[in-house]
Write a structure and sequence with these properties.
Blueprint: H1 2-29, E1 33-35, H2 37-58, H3 68-88, E2 96-98, H4 116-131, H5 135-163, H6 166-169
Antiparallel strand pairs: 1-2
């Protein structure tokens, strides 16, 4: 079951990367530019390591009796993931691509959180290993992810504030991940 689950996730990620590439091409055609390239590669490496570690550790362990709870968390995170992606539309990406003077998206989950998609990633990287009893993967990957997301959120918010009215529009919306002052 673990291999089927991991394979399904990999297909999901591949489809999302295709969407992201299409959106990136459109944003670059509109005058967009990229920020955070220097840390993006570490996020990609972490996600690759996640799958290897999940399969290696999860393949040797048994799911806990309470696997249902992280499975529900994962399922709810998927709903939030696709709500976030559909709310951002062409602005959704796995990279930080800024389109100067573009309207700041404040629909969907972005009415409630500045970074709902990052909440999804936090939940997934913790819940998926817990479903399969891969506790080391859950802890190690989640801690590294939180470190990288702190850098990413700071970079993204700074870039958006410089090129749009993000700082004003999102000032009262919870960030979700404390990233220090960026306003």
């Amino acid at each position: 079951m673990l291999l089927w689950f991991a394979g399904t996730l990999l297909v999901q990620r591949w489809v999302e990367l295709m969407i992201a590439q299409k959106n990136a091409a459109w944003m670059f055609q509109q005058g967009g530019y990229e920020r955070g390239r220097e840390h993006y590669k570490y996020i990609v490496i972490l996600h690759g390591f996640f799958f290897v570690s999940l399969i290696a550790e999860g393949g040797r362990s048994s799911p806990p009796t309470w696997w249902f709870f992280p499975a529900v968390a994962f399922t709810l995170a998927q709903i939030l993931r696709y709500w976030s992606i559909s709310s951002l539309g062409r602005f959704w990406n796995t990279r930080i691509i800024i389109l100067p003077d573009a309207p700041v998206v404040v629909r969907g989950p972005y009415r409630f959180l500045r970074h709902p998609n990052y909440l999804v990633v936090i939940i997934e990287l913790l819940a998926i290993p817990l479903i399969f009893g891969a506790y080391g993967t859950a802890v190690i990957v989640s801690l590294i992810n939180l470190f990288l997301l702190r850098i990413r959120v700071q970079t993204e918010e700074k870039a958006l504030a410089e090129a749009t009215d993000y700082g004003i529009v999102m000032n009262d919306v919870p960030r979700l991940i404390p990233a220090g002052e960026s306003d």
